[in-house]
Amino acid sequence: MKYSMLLILSSLAILLSACLPDPVDIVIPQAESRLVISSQMIQDQVLLVQVGRSLSALDFAPAQGEALSPELLDQILVRQARVVVAGAGQTDTLRALGAGLYLGTGITYQTGAAYQLSVYDSVSQQGVFATAEVQPAATWTDLGYTFEIFDYGIDGIDRQDTTLVLSLAFEDLPGGSYYMINAYEASLTRLENLPDFEDLAATLLAPTAQRTFPLSDALYPGQAIIRDTLRLEGFAPGDTLLMSLAQVEETYFQYLTTRARRAGSLVVELLGEPVNHPSNVVRGYGMFALYRPRIQMLVLE
Known about the structure:
By secondary structure, the protein is mainly beta. The chain has helices spanning 70-76, 188-192, 197-204, 250-262, 266-271, and strands at residues 35-43, 46-53, 82-87, 90-93, 95-98, 101-104, 114-121, 126-133, 140-154, 157-171, 178-186, 210-216, 225-233, 240-248, 285-287, 294-299.
């Protein structure tokens, strides 16, 4: 996810009597460390929640060569929280998978119903909660692809760049609607041998696996079927691609577009101060969202 850096403007030079002013101590207020929530639905009954703690941008400075160490990850990933989702007469206590990830499979989520997420971290003794309504499912009508190949040479060595061009179409739901398209790179062999939801979660949440594209139907006025093209780098024939389509709430759409503009990830959001992100988490940061994804698999040839 993204972070907002605190910018320190330099002191003013006072050129009086050719003297420099005495140094002034500057106290920079830092946002309180809070729990940061991110959620993702893999199937209608499979919910993943990631829980972390925010850090000040002053505590981690990658621009100065500071590396993301295991010790720092231990500070930001909440590994032993109590995470509960309740609503529509059902309650599910999510199971810890490690790395701050929690898996829930005990609720059959109903379109239009509201559910509340409650998270309590016994280490920091912080608790947060958020409420979300399950959005209707969107429907793919077409999904195809081609490869664009660009040949070039550097220092006499032939090289080649490959761009995956996706042609997609889906039905636009009534009213002002917002959508999220996720592209996942996955191993076909692993997908064919998934023993349970944990492996599916691990496949879809690998650090480099997911690319997210938020869309608003306001960009496609009067179109009952939304058609567009996505261009993805880093794919080649032989790869397996999972494409997920979901309608999302407007607040979650705004959250996704904010993340996209800042070109970050959830870890980056934890390391920074996500106070400027849209959020529905009470006493914390991040976003809890519920939707019904529809997944198509492409084996690229």
